[in-house]
Amino acid sequence: MSRIAYVNGFYRPQSQAAVNIEDRGYQFGDGIYEVVHLHAGRFVDTDLHLGRLERSLREISLPMPMPRAALELVLAEVVRRNRLTEGLVYMQVTRGVAHRDHAFPKKPVPVSLVVTAKRIPPYPRNVDNWTGAAITAPDLRWARRDIKSINLLPNVLARQAAREQGAIEAILYDEATGEVTEGAATSFWIVDEHGTIRVRQLDHVILPGCTRAALIAELAEEGLAFETRAFTLDEMRRAREAFLTSATSFVKPIVRIDGAPVGDGTVGPVVRRLFDVFARHVLGPAHNAAA
Q1: FRET partner for 276 with CA separation of 20 to 30 A, picked from 28, 173, 189, 226?
Q2: Which residue out of 107, 118, 148, 252 is catalytically annotated?
């Protein structure tokens, strides 16, 4: 069955879906995107993702394409038409179609909304089979990384560099300060040499990750101490453990960075526990009752 996409009010087979070549998303990257994870037919952390979408749109003076409740109905319908129970739903909002000019259109035009969905494997069961390696790379992105913009060329190049070196992620850092910012498409955490869970504080140089926020809430619920404080490359290299969070990484242990082992090169006890904690969050009440 062909995948079904929603494009500006219409549901179309994805192979037939199209946008105008003068859409400002295509011409300038003038738009915002968001991704929501679907597990067992249930959206995970919808409020966090749609709240971030609304914030990013405000930051670039773009209106929501429709009220949040209506958008949630569109997301659900795309899922239904694609017969998904496990997957990702992607939404993209752009400033719409106008003659090419860098400034906003003089006369407002309707914003464009595209929603697609795809299947992904279910939540991993074994954390030891969920590990990965990373590389480090200078952070070359624009100054407002807190906005989930569709301008992703530096992220693409960083991820490609990681892939070419047999890694799954590029850990970005500020060349001037040596401070780690985040992954090319993930939030990056360490368990430092003193055993403290750390992730960079929110500011304009990192994206406010929704999985990051959900895990922080779970840490508080579990009574686990953590710090939102920047760390340097040197601190990262002395860390006992490291991991990524994102809508597709969940809690993903990183066991090698730039070819060197993190800690002893295996999944550490803290990340192992956090993997289980977040599994309960994603899999929901039925899983927790069964456990």
Answers
A1: 173
A2: 148
Does pTM top 0.90 for this prediction? yes
What range defines the domain where residue 268 resides? 127-290
Tell me, letter by letter, the H, E, C secondary structure of the chain: CCCEEEECCEEEECCCCCCCCCEHHHHHCCEEEEEEEEECCEEECHHHHHHHHHHHHHHCCCCCCCCHHHHHHHHHHHHHHCCCCCEEEEEEEECCECCCCCCCCCCCCCCEEEEEEEECCCCCCCHHHCCEEEEEEECCCCCCCCCCECCCHHHHHHHHHHHHCCCCEEEEECCCCCEEEEECCCEEEEECCCCCEEECCCCCCCCCCHHHHHHHHHHHHHCCCEEECCCEHHHHHCCCEEEEEECCCEEEEEEEECCEECCCCCCCHHHHHHHHHHHHHHHHHHHHHHC
Would you call 148 a catalytic residue per the annotation?
yes
Let me know whether 141 and 264 are in one domain: yes
pLDDT of residue 2: 77
Q: Does 291 have pLDDT greater than 70?
A: no
Count of domains for the chain: 2
Residue 29 has pLDDT above 50, yes or no: yes
Same domain, 194 and 286: yes
